[in-house]
Amino acid sequence: MKWTDSRDIAIELCDLYPDVDPKNVRFTDLHQWVMDLDDFDDDPNHSNEKILEAIILCWMDEMD
């Protein structure tokens, strides 16, 4: 997965952290959690606030 795979990342995070409310996740934590995903293979420096926000929004959508 790459940073642009927001939906796939969100699905993985939803499975790994079912009790976490994505609205309360700090970007620094989110960045690390994404980096720790087994299928994630992208440059850590390619993330930015817009990408992390997209992941959060997808994660919130997956929880509904």
TrEMBL record:
Transmembrane segments: none
Entry's Gene Ontology BP terms: iron-sulfur cluster assembly
Listed GO CC annotations: cytosol
Record-linked InterPro entries: ISC_FeS_clus_asmbl_IscsX, IscX-like_sf
Species assigned in the record: Vibrio ruber (strain DSM 16370 / JCM 11486 / BCRC 17186 / CECT 7878 / LMG 23124 / VR1)
Domain of life: Bacteria
PANTHER family, sorted: PROTEIN ISCX
Protein name listed in UniProt: FeS assembly protein IscX
A GO MF term: ferrous iron binding
Pfam families xrefs: Fe-S_assembly (PF04384)
